[in-house]
Amino acid sequence: MPENVILRGRTLRLEPLAEHHVEALARAAAGDRGSYAFTPVPCGVEAAERYVADALAARAAGRALPFATVRVADGRVVGSTRFCELDYWQGPVPWPPAPRGPLGPVRTAIPDAAEIGGTWLSACAQGTGINTEAKLLMLRHAFETWGVRRVSLRADARNLRSRTAIERLGATLDGVHRAHSRGLDGMVRSTAFYSILDEEWPRVREQLEQRVGAARPEGASARSLVPA
Fold this sequence. Notes:
By secondary structure, this protein is an alpha+beta fold. It has helices at 22-28, 45-60, 130-146, 160-168, 201-213; strands at 5-8, 12-16, 64-71, 76-87, 113-121, 150-156, 172-182, 188-197, 224-227. This is GNAT family N-acetyltransferase. It comes from Streptomyces melanogenes.
């Protein structure tokens, strides 16, 4: 799987999700949970333990690269996000097409396509610009460090808040997969799929940098990438 990294921005730090984040994640999710109707967010320490264990298992299997979202101002964990559906295109063309792991050593593998998902923020961090800057950091890493051809995002078709946020990133709606799966509420859900391609990234990057930079104090440093 890709190497763990810390992605640093002006307002937040994305650091590799680990067991020591359990209690902080539980605290982050303990506030107003009204925005979590379509998003799996742990409730309580035991649920946070399972959440982290599942995320680390997905990382060990090469399926995901999960992060804890840390607010720079006070060092507080305010949520989580991840790269998932890591796809590798080397070797023979598989049939039927489906995401697959790397053919070579997993520790040095770099994906050709990825999805950003599993994103949630505590109520106190929503609407503060943290989500926008986090997406900028992740998209930069995917396109400029890994060199992926596509980054995908998805949302329950009913989740207008998430869909609006994705569209504001500059992602293109690929379509809605009707009756795609069972939703978090147990109902059959349709799923809206979005994507950003590598040739679209310069335009998307410029728009996101303008949005993030508009709130940056003069002299504030830009993000950096630090191997974890």
